[in-house]
Amino acid sequence: MNLHRLLLQRQAANNPLRVGLIGAGKFGSMYLAQARVTPGIHLVAIADLSAARAREACARTGWPAEALDAPTFARAARGGTTHICEDAMALIESPLVDIVIDATGSPSAGIAHVLACCAHRKHIVMVNVEADALAGPLLARKAEQAGIVYSLAYGDQPALICEQVDWARAAGFEVVAAGKGTKYLPGYHQSTPDTVWGHYGFTPEMVAQGDFNAQMFNSFLDGTKSAIEMAAVANATGLTPASSGLLFPACGVDDLARLLKPCAEGGQLDHAGQVEVISSVERDGRPVFRDLRWGVYVTFRAAGNADRAYVERCFKEYGIVTDPSGRYAAMYKPSHLIGLELGISVASVGLRREATGAATGWRGDVVATAKRDLEAGETLDGEGGYTVYGKLMPAAESLAAGGLPIGLAHHVRLVKPVAAGQPVGWADVDIDATALAVRVRREMEVAFA
Fold first, then answer.
1. Helix (H, G, I), strand (E, B) or coil at 225
2. Domains and CATH numbers, the chain
3. What pLDDT is attached to residue 304?
4. Which of 98-102, 215-219, 278-282 has the lowest mean pLDDT?
């Protein structure tokens, strides 16, 4: 409740939080729009593979050119301006940066950045949920051992879900389910960058006028991004996936408490304490009434040793929407502001040394799954591509099956055929075992087995 007050104090003391941003894409640009006007923050540096792209992002979000004229980290720190470079490791190594934001979206880059932050004692905010789903439990452990804060990014749905779970538990409730909304139909799992725009309802003219990345958009549509985000939530909260993966029940906000409870209680969950994504459309394509496509939710009930009758009576007295039994209730946030809210994580990490969500164990994993019959010799193209989508699995089941994580299913060649709908295994691909991301993932499998 006091982050703004603490930021004002840092500004008054001329001691701002010194931040470095890696990646000036959409999420990074949204943070840029807010960082310039947030008190107590000095964005010392921006690193991107293209310095020109970083400058364009700054210009697009209202930064004056004179704010970007620092030729070095030192000049930026002295003058209160921002240095732009193409060397992410130089940003992490600079003693003039205290908090690093990874907004790259690359699992391999994210892992390298976290390890560098551990070595140089820099807190890190991971917009890069792809890296977190691949190796977050081990990365968070290494960060703790290094004495730094590793945090999921507020504004992205996983951190917002973690916040709701924490709210419910801190208030003494038992969390039954938590997750987010999306637009889902079973056929979307086979969507490719060639078919994605039709599913979104975008015309060729709309696509031509915008800055749209077909593979990135398709990763949201084909279920991969939902699986990645729910793995991050499971690993951070202790909630677990259903054995069959995400169910994507069609559900509006008024039915959360009725549907997001265990099947044994008349709901649609595999078990209490489950991560789940709900669909904004019915299976026949009709829109769900009062859908939660852009938001997050938590369903809960009175804890087992509470006076349940009293709590349930309070639900009724204060207008809480419950299931018919009155036992299950829900709260939700209808939307999220993505990078525009990222400053909450920066402030929480820098002022309180508190993460806005971080893995505490390995409970959920995302396994590459064939979109169609794949032949030996084909090359996988990762999330949102033509060959595989990511399916959420309990981590123990993924480990037992030898599943290939979606975060490593990029530019690797199949050595065995894989039938449509089947998981791809480590044994099915020719992969470079010496690559950093592969070594870290394998280390995590051993550490958390």
1. helix
2. 3-154+339-352 (3.40.50.720), 158-184+223-335 (no CATH), 364-448 (3.90.1210.10)
3. 86
4. 215-219
Q: How far apart are the first and last CA of the chain?
A: 39
Q: Name the residue among 189, 249, 199 with its Cα closest to residue 224.
A: 189
In the block, tokens 């079973």 appear at 186
Residue 207 pLDDT exceeds 90: no
The DSSP secondary structure of 326-393, one letter per residue, reads S-EEEEEE----GGGGTHHHHHIIIII---SS--SS--EEEEEEESS-B-TT-EEE-TTSSSEEEEEE
| pLDDT recorded at residue 210 | 67
Residue entry with tokens 């207008």: 319
Length of the chain as a residue count: 449
How many Å apart are CA 413 and CA 411, to the nearest integer? 7
Residue 352 CA to residue 3 CA, distance in Å, equals 9
- Name every residue whose Cβ is closer than 8 Å to that of residue 417 and which is 6 or more positions away in sequence: 373, 374, 375, 376
Q: How far is Cα 191 from Cα 178, in angstroms, rounded to an integer?
A: 26
Angle, CA of 401, 217 and 337, to the nearest 5°:
105
Q: Which residues contact 8 (CB under 8 A, 6 or more apart)?
A: 39, 40
Give buried/exposed letters for 345-381 (b at 16+ CB in 10 A, else e). Answer: bbbbbbbeeebbbbbebbbbbbbbbbbeebeeebebb
List all residues 6 or more positions away from 388 whose beta carbon is below 8 Å from its beta carbon: 368, 369, 370, 371, 374, 380, 381, 382, 406, 409, 424
Q: Give the C-alpha separation, 253 to 297, whole Å.
A: 9
Which spans in 94-213 are helix H?
107-120, 129-146, 157-170, 196-200, 204-209
Q: Would the pLDDT of 378 be above 70? A: yes
Taking a C-beta distance cutoff of 8 angstroms, is the pair 47, 22 a contact? yes
pLDDT (tens digit per residue) in 69-85:
899 999 999 999 999 99
Ramachandran class of 389: left when φ > 0, alpha when ψ lies in -120 to 50, beta otherwise: beta
pLDDT surpasses 90 at 309: yes
Longest CA–CA span in the chain (Å) reads: 66
